[in-house]
Design goal:
- With 207 residues, the protein is of the alpha/beta class.
- The protein has 2 domains: 2-151, Alpha/beta knot, CATH 3.40.1280; 176-206, Trp Operon Repressor, Chain A, CATH 1.10.1270.
- Helices cover 33% and strands 22% of the residues.
- It has 8 helices and 10 strands.
- The strands form 3 sheets. A 5-stranded parallel β-sheet has the order 2-1-6-5-8, with helices on both faces. A 3-stranded mixed β-sheet has the order 3-4-7. A two-stranded antiparallel sheet has the order 9-10.
- Strand 9 and strand 10 (188-189) form a beta hairpin.
- Helix 4 (94-101) packs across helix 6.
- The radius of gyration is 22 Å and the shape is elongated.
- Bound molecules: adenine (ADE).
Length: 207
């Protein structure tokens, strides 16, 4: 079982993506253990402030150190990697998904607002990942993208046929075109080679 902790100020964002389809089944089958934590709960004081003005000026609020340090100190297990999601991180791809899928447990920190206190990165980040060269409002969507991509690499999450296919995709083969019934849909025809049952020919066509 792979354990994933997510630190976020917006736990509700994860409801849809993690409570449907394949991720939902992986959780139900005990392959994935996903825990969403609102780190506002770790902010001291009656108002649980998580952000404050930027030293040196400038508009926009900055995420404070204390709530995140508290959350990490309360939740992080020995050996668990803490990954920061930022547009400056190393670029996510299928190889990184495979790398992360080999871990026993991961923690994701979803930043928000204009930024977070630099000391969080210095003291806490084991890794920093970007899902692409564009700026999102927070790390929540990137965390969902990464969890989805690594979940489907975990043994037992996909059916065995799909998993075998996934192996070939991981080796860099391009996806081939798929067709299903009917063989003729409004005059749009399935390639003849796929209908004749010659598996050697079909393999060659797919390559
Ligand atoms: N946070 C904001 N934008 C991001 C991106 N592109 N990747 C990861 N985290 C982010």
């Amino acid at each position: 079982m792979m354990k994933i902790d997510i630190l976020t100020l917006f736990p509700g964002m994860f409801k849809g993506p993690f409570e449907e389809s394949i991720i939902k089944r992986a959780v139900e089958n005990g392959i994935l253990d996903i825990r969403i934590h609102n780190f506002r709960e770790f902010a001291p004081g009656r108002h649980h402030h998580v952000d404050d003005y930027s030293y040196g000026g400038g508009e926009g609020m900055v995420l404070k150190c204390e709530p995140v340090f508290n959350a990490v100190e309360a939740l992080k297990e020995p050996g668990q990697k803490l990954i920061f999601l930022t547009p400056q991180g190393r670029k996510f791809n299928q190889a990184v998904a495979g790398e992360l899928a080999a871990e026993k447990s991961l923690m994701f920190f979803c930043g928000h607002y204009e930024g977070f206190d630099e000391r969080l990165r210095e003291a806490l980040a084991d890794d920093e990942i970007s899902i692409g060269d564009y700026v999102l409002t927070g790390g929540e969507l990137p965390a969902m993208v990464i969890v989805d991509a690594l979940a489907r690499r975990l043994p037992g999450v996909l059916g065995s046929a799909a998993a075998a296919h996934e192996d070939s995709f991981s080796e860099g083969l391009l996806e081939y075109p798929h067709y299903t019934r009917p063989a003729d849909f409004r005059g749009l025809k399935v390639p003849e080679v796929l209908l004749n049952g010659n598996h050697a020919e079909i393999r060659r066509w797919r390559l």
